[in-house]
Amino acid sequence: MQAISPPCPLKSIVPTRPRLGRVGAVSKLHSIQCVYRSDSVHFPNGVGLSRADWQSSCAILSSKVVSQQQPTDKPGAGKDLNGAAAADADHVASVNGHKAAGPMDLNLVPINNKSPATAGAAGGATVTSNKPAQQKPLTITDLSPAPMHGSQLRVAYQGVPGAYSEAAAGKAYPNCEAIPCDQFEVAFQAVELWIADRAVLPVENSLGGSIHRNYDLLLRHRLHIVGEVQLPVHHCLLALPGVRKEYITRVISHPQALAQCELSLTKLGLQATREAVDDTAGAAEYIATNNLRDTAAIASARAAELYGMEVLENGIQDDSGNVTRFVMLAREPIIPRTDRPFKTSIVFAHDKGTSVLFKVLSAFAFRNISLTKIESRPHRNRPIRLVDDANVGTAKHFEYMFYVDFEASMAEVRAQNALAEVQEFTSFLRVLGSYPMDMTPWSPSRGD
Ligand SMILES: O=C(O)C(=O)C[C@]1(C(=O)O)C=C[C@@H](O)C=C1
């Protein structure tokens, strides 16, 4: 995997402005003035129809409440493949040397009748011809889009080089070009704006629990989960060369890393405050850049190497089996299959009713489909439901979005039937992705 360097300092500590640089010497992506429109990722007619056919047959169940986003009636701003409306186009910045199109210039998709995948295979060249382009049958490659710019996949991750997310990007896509982003949201936008081909984002850790922000962003954006990787996370306590533990008054790291080392830090007996920053490697970089001899970082051994730090303690996660699950996101879904274990992620909401959650979950239980994860998040459009009872007052019910992962492929009839049943009980249902499960053999985290 090739990392892009050097990164900018952490935005949360040292405010930085977006740097526009050359490709190959670019800094971390900063908040992109987000602009995307559905027409920037939709396929031209013929191909689009075939995709839609496939999608409606096996992946996406339309929702009764079409979208969490307000539909817009701007021309070209239609529904996306999951029924979500496209966001307004405002402004697109040229970010880190990757030129994105402006509102009136969203020809990021080649406007011949090729899918991005086939265009990518041809080196991304746009064929301009007045003749109607000949339609070729879709191939498997069309439906698993390849990068549009040669063979190297660009993968956005949150953090700077040395972050665990960068390692996860490398595990998911071994020869990728890893693109550091300063926020999770920026990684989503990087894919939506075709600055990156994929994003790799953490969703849960075995010790720290769910990364809620990414659950919320999955719903707000319209990317598809196309895979997952589980990365053993082996934390080290890093300080500048020569610094002893007794000098340390502050330990900084990503909140998840601090949570994963909570007990070990206490056991080490450091007289130090704990402070949360944007990412683990960024913490190490910050200490190095500012020559802080009273501060330690929790980060990877690779971050120590990259930023000239020393490892004071190795393996300080509270459990040696510490593992973070990341999902890979793309603009287009992959075709679900049945020849290997697949997982499917959905999100749904329901109106009032009794035992709705029980009914939904039983749709899976009756079909012997195992659930691997359930998460609830506030329903941002409707966080509270008031139920008035003239006699006793007003009950205030919290409303939720439920995220469920289950072990089946959307290519399986039992999964399709389960979702058809779930739809009966829900007011909103979206398939976030159906993707191969990470089946790599288990090895507890090691320090390499
Ligand atoms: O800060 C990093 O190095 C990250 O990649 C982020 C992150 C997270 O968000 O959970 C990823 C994996 C580890 O669990 C700790 C932190």
If you compute it from the alpha carbons, what radius of gyration comes out, rounded to the nearest whole angstrom? 23 Å
Number of distinct beta strands? 18
- What integer is the average pLDDT? 74
What string, H for helix and E for strand, traces the elements in order?
EHHHEHEHEEHEEEHHEHEHEEEHEEEEHE
Number of domains: 3
Strand content: 15-25%
Largest sheet, strands/sense/barrel: 7 strands, mixed
Would you tell me the structural class of the helices and strands? Answer: alpha/beta
User: What is the straight-line distance between the termini?
Assistant: 16 Å
Percentage of residues in helical conformation: 10-25%
Shape by Cα distribution:
globular
Outline the low-pLDDT stretches.
4-26, 32-144
User: What's the tally of helices?
Assistant: 12
Bound molecules: prephenic acid
